[in-house]
């Protein structure tokens, strides 16, 4: 049985959830993949898919894959390992970020301490404005 995502708060403009302590990500099950949780449905995202994955020691992702239209950004939260993109293999450690074009064939493998990572998928080429160009002052007062 899979661990559940906990709902924290929501209104018409947001939804907040909690996946619990990093050490418990391994308890999520998505299909045949133990240690994987996808957040699109839980968060109601419309422009991205975020997932967390926990790989036990010396374990590779179950499939070497590419995407049709989404680029991915991987962030190593804990542990280390290796990543293969096409024919290139390189080391991953805590705080490493990797962006992969949709066409890049990719997989990860954890090292002896296992690895916890986040993956964010977004449609390649979809970002039109960011940070200061897209942020505007809110029409209400902050309570913080
Ligand atoms: Zn992928």
Q: How many beta-strand elements?
A: 10
Q: Which geometry do the CA atoms define? A: globular
Order of helices and strands: EEEEEHEEEEE
Flag low-confidence runs: none
Helix count equals: 1
**Proportion of helical residues:** under 10%
Q: Please report which band the strand proportion falls in: under 5%, 5-15%, 15-25%, 25-35%, 35-45% or over 45%.
A: over 45%
- Total domain count: 1
Q: So, CATH architecture? A: Sandwich
What does this structure look like?
The protein has one helix spanning 40-43; strands at residues 6-11, 14-18, 29-30, 33-34, 36-38, 48-55, 70-85, 88-93, 97-100, 106-123. The strands form three sheets. Strands 5, 6, 7, 8, 9 and 10 form a six-stranded antiparallel β-sheet that branches. The longest helix has 4 residues, at 40-43. Helices cover 3% and strands 49% of the residues. It has a single domain (6-125), classed as Jelly Rolls (Sandwich). It starts with 5 loop residues before the first strand and ends in a 21-residue tail after the last strand. The protein is mostly beta strands and 144 residues long. The chain has one helix and ten strands; from the N terminus they run E-E-E-E-E-H-E-E-E-E-E. Strand 7 (70-85) and strand 8 form a beta hairpin. The protein binds zinc ion (ZN).
Summary?
3% of the residues lie in helices and 49% in strands. It has one helix at 40-43, and strands at residues 6-11, 14-18, 29-30, 33-34, 36-38, 48-55, 70-85, 88-93, 97-100, 106-123.
Keywords:
single chain; 144 residues; mainly beta; Jelly Rolls; 10 strands; binds zinc ion
